[in-house]
Amino acid sequence: MTTHSKRHEKIKNNPANVRFEEAETWLLSFGFQEREGRGSHKVFTHPLWDGKLTMQSRKGMAKAYQIRQALKAIEEIHHV
What we know:
Blueprint: H1 3-13, H2 20-29, E1 33-36, E2 41-45, E3 52-58, E4 61-62, H3 64-78
Protein backbone atom coordinates (compact mmCIF):
# COMPACT_ATOMS: atom_id res chain seq x y z
CA MET A 1 0.00 0.00 0.00
CA THR A 2 1.41 3.37 -0.99
CA THR A 3 1.73 6.39 1.27
CA HIS A 4 -1.04 8.03 -0.76
CA SER A 5 -3.38 5.09 -0.10
CA LYS A 6 -2.44 4.88 3.58
CA ARG A 7 -3.14 8.59 4.10
CA HIS A 8 -6.50 8.29 2.32
CA GLU A 9 -7.58 5.29 4.42
CA LYS A 10 -6.47 6.99 7.65
CA ILE A 11 -8.50 10.12 6.84
CA LYS A 12 -11.48 8.09 5.62
CA ASN A 13 -11.54 6.04 8.84
CA ASN A 14 -11.26 9.04 11.18
CA PRO A 15 -12.36 12.34 9.57
CA ALA A 16 -12.63 14.04 12.96
CA ASN A 17 -8.91 13.78 13.69
CA VAL A 18 -7.12 15.30 10.67
CA ARG A 19 -4.49 18.00 10.92
CA PHE A 20 -5.13 20.88 8.54
CA GLU A 21 -1.70 20.55 6.86
CA GLU A 22 -2.34 16.85 6.28
CA ALA A 23 -5.72 17.64 4.70
CA GLU A 24 -4.04 20.14 2.36
CA THR A 25 -1.42 17.61 1.26
CA TRP A 26 -4.08 14.93 0.83
CA LEU A 27 -6.28 17.12 -1.38
CA LEU A 28 -3.34 18.25 -3.50
CA SER A 29 -2.33 14.61 -4.02
CA PHE A 30 -5.76 13.98 -5.59
CA GLY A 31 -5.28 16.83 -8.07
CA PHE A 32 -7.08 19.61 -6.25
CA GLN A 33 -5.75 23.12 -6.72
CA GLU A 34 -5.50 25.49 -3.81
CA ARG A 35 -6.27 29.17 -3.74
CA GLU A 36 -6.14 31.43 -0.74
CA GLY A 37 -9.33 32.21 1.08
CA ARG A 38 -9.76 34.70 3.86
CA GLY A 39 -8.16 34.27 7.24
CA SER A 40 -7.95 30.61 8.20
CA HIS A 41 -9.93 29.48 5.12
CA LYS A 42 -8.54 27.92 1.97
CA VAL A 43 -10.51 27.03 -1.14
CA PHE A 44 -9.81 23.94 -3.26
CA THR A 45 -11.07 23.26 -6.78
CA HIS A 46 -10.54 20.39 -9.20
CA PRO A 47 -10.59 20.60 -13.01
CA LEU A 48 -12.85 17.52 -13.28
CA TRP A 49 -15.34 18.70 -10.66
CA ASP A 50 -17.76 21.64 -10.75
CA GLY A 51 -17.78 22.43 -7.04
CA LYS A 52 -15.34 23.94 -4.62
CA LEU A 53 -14.23 22.91 -1.16
CA THR A 54 -13.70 25.44 1.57
CA MET A 55 -11.46 24.19 4.34
CA GLN A 56 -10.88 25.92 7.65
CA SER A 57 -8.15 25.44 10.20
CA ARG A 58 -9.32 25.42 13.78
CA LYS A 59 -6.43 25.17 16.21
CA GLY A 60 -4.42 23.34 13.53
CA MET A 61 -7.14 20.79 12.81
CA ALA A 62 -9.49 20.47 9.84
CA LYS A 63 -13.20 20.41 10.57
CA ALA A 64 -14.73 16.92 10.31
CA TYR A 65 -17.70 17.95 8.16
CA GLN A 66 -15.32 19.56 5.66
CA ILE A 67 -13.26 16.37 5.49
CA ARG A 68 -16.45 14.38 4.84
CA GLN A 69 -17.32 16.81 2.01
CA ALA A 70 -13.83 16.32 0.58
CA LEU A 71 -14.19 12.52 0.77
CA LYS A 72 -17.46 12.75 -1.16
CA ALA A 73 -15.85 14.97 -3.82
CA ILE A 74 -12.90 12.58 -4.20
CA GLU A 75 -15.31 9.66 -4.63
CA GLU A 76 -17.17 11.56 -7.35
CA ILE A 77 -13.97 12.43 -9.20
CA HIS A 78 -11.85 9.30 -8.76
CA HIS A 79 -14.42 6.63 -7.88
CA VAL A 80 -12.28 5.59 -4.90
